[in-house]
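Quick note —
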Amino acid sequence: MIALTTLNRRARFAALLAAALSLSTPIWSQQASDQAPALALRAFGTLGLARSSSAHAQFARDLSQPYGVSDQWSGKIDSVLGVQANYRLHDKVEAVAQAVSRYGAEDNFKPEVSWAFLKYEPDARLSLRGGRIGTDLFMGADSRLIGYSYLPVRPSPDFFFTLMLSYFDGMDVQVTQPMGEGVVRAKLYAGHAREKIPVLNDILDFSGSPLVGGFIDYQQGAWMWRASYGQLRSSSELPGMGALLSGLNQYNAALRLPSAQAAADDLAMKDKFIHYYSLGMLYDEGPLQIHAMVNRIHKDFASAKSTESGMFLLGYRIGSVTPFAGYSWINAQDKFVDTGLGRVIGPNAVDAGIQLFIDASHVQQNTVTLGLRWDFQRNMALKIQGDMVRGAPSSVFPYRGVDAAFDGHTSVLSIALDFIL
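Predicted structure written out below.
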């Protein structure tokens, strides 16, 4: 659903509990009577330009993008075009479909179906959906492609770039219940991932990977809190890892070295879990908006590092203009795999390759964000933003095309026009 910051001042239940505008105001609709089916069509998009200060690493919006921007202006990382159709089959049943064109894993803007589900709401407290559904692993994750729905040009890359999934095929159930002076909402979901990400000049395909999770949030007045958890079991192996695993197995067979076999088992990603833990808070009252989140992504395999990250965003609306400032950070947990080969045969290519593989997922950086959002027309916003990223030279995971001269520092200037139609 689309969370629109400029519409949060409407009914607090609809805006903050749902945190969404369900694209219910159509650009074209057909309805013969109050009981007849109705079709509503909407479009949304972002026209974005960005450049960084570094010629030694390309800044990408998230892990789905094979290339990013460096010291030349580019419109590819933030530009998005989407359409959504809502068709009401019954007063309690609705069909929703959404298609989005954005720069993705295959180095193009090939459109993909991001939502395609049936929703059944027998009453205001229960909702069931089945089909292709947006992921709710973090607060705001299911609407992060709709630029109009948030203050900055893009959701914090430090916080969101490791979130590899935008949708899944499956079902969810949501229960809403008044509690005290507020409202509590709980959701459970289950299904299978269908997306791909570029890894080491190859493609990691998560298609068929089981995904389960849920969240619980509580909204009272201007405040909302959320705790969420999700887990993905990978159905694929990391590209490039097969040769290393084969090498370890061969050494184990030749040298009868159990530590080599144990290392291979530890490094393998296939059939292992990625766990997503997140806490979030939103305050939205009058001209003031505050958003804070922390997360931990734990990987049950040793070939990629687990991470912890957090973000804070503050905005204050003055008429049609909203200045905003933010701070975010992300750190990876070091991993070391002991194959035992070094003690038997000395330095070797397998150990070196394993360490290079693990180090490719290292990240240790923080970002200061300053920007301005101007809602110059209904359903349209112009944004300008600067991000000052300060990290270690070894913090290469968020970037593409990193060379040896990269010092971990870059500054990114972005301009974007967001709209819904």
